[in-house]
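Justification of resources, computational component.

The compute hours requested in this renewal are based largely on the per-chain cost of generating structure records like the one below. Each record pairs the submitted sequence with a full structure-token output. That output is archived, and it is also reused by downstream analysis tasks.
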Amino acid sequence: MALSTWEHPEPLAIGSAPVPEYGTGSLADLLPTLAAGMSVPGMTAAIPELTGADRNCVFLIDGLGWEQLRAHPDEAPFMASLLASSRGGTGRPITTGYPATTATSLASVGTGLPPGAHGLPGYTVRDPETGGLMNQLRWTPWTQPRTWQPYPTVFELADAAGVHTAQVSSPTFQNTPLTKVALSGGTFHGRLTGEDRVDFAAAQLAAGDRSLVYTYYAEVDGKGHRFGVDSDPWRGQLMYVDRLVQRLAEQLPPRSALYVTADHGMIDIPFDEQHRIDFDEDWELRAGVALLGGEGRARHVYAVPGAEADVLTCWREVLGEQFWVASRDEAIAAGWFGPHVDERVYARIGDVVAAARDDVLIIATEREPKESAMVGNHGSMTPAEQHVPLLEVRS
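The structure output for this chain reads:
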């Protein structure tokens, strides 16, 4: 018996997506746990495996996922030696949150809230006030930061509680809106080189009886996007940042804990039509779509009013074997953005949300030429993207 022309395989079940460990083991749970250990009011020790310390330093390495670190022990011997220490000595990773992308993850780290609360639920999302796309990493078009993300950061709460609080990062980031909404509180110290950053972070740890210090390194992610994970430039950056982690660990003052983590992992996607589906060339995917947001592996799709159901049906039929494709309400109910989504955040989420399971991207070569040319990508809920280390060194 012949198959119908319109017969499609069953799409991936929404419930089969591996939702981040909000509330017990996600990036949003890290700073509240550390702050609770320093007796900051209102903070809860959400990651039960961690033990409190008087002085805490978080070193966030952009783009260094758990799977990538485990696969490269020769390039990162010091961090590889710490794998068993991850997540309080369990040897397990934590999860980033959805989507696994820098703006979302940094907001989760700094506010201690999941994306549905802090309101940065993607790389680009619709601003309900203007109807246009807002890039939350580059903060374009400019939007009032504290209107977009009104909650205090954990750094602000810790500083108010008398904890010595500092961020040590590139001077480029000092006055960016993303820093203001995600990482403000205490004092920002701009340092150009990685060595200067870790040296100064160690000094800031020692500057208080109770200290909370954050430092950051970006170029593992940059080389991964441009050249791919496991490329020689990426490996070189991994070797360099491994030395930085060791340098910082060797300078920890007494009663300190250093936590090394990341905002997301990364995977390489081949450059062919099977793995890179071009939205700008695909009439089926474009039908009824007013705006395409998010990024290649974590799309927010905003439909023309009245076309929401048709767009959902079409995207499921075209992509449902490779992507978890959900309506906004289905994604929220499944907990993709956390246990609760604030009212102000609801319409920022796509009418349709598509999260990649397979090694595939939805690119947009006309709308997003630079992003469409990247070798390494991230955003979705696969272990390679979601799982990040939480390595620990104590003094």
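The first strand starts at residue 55 and ends at 61. The first helix runs from residue 30 to 37.
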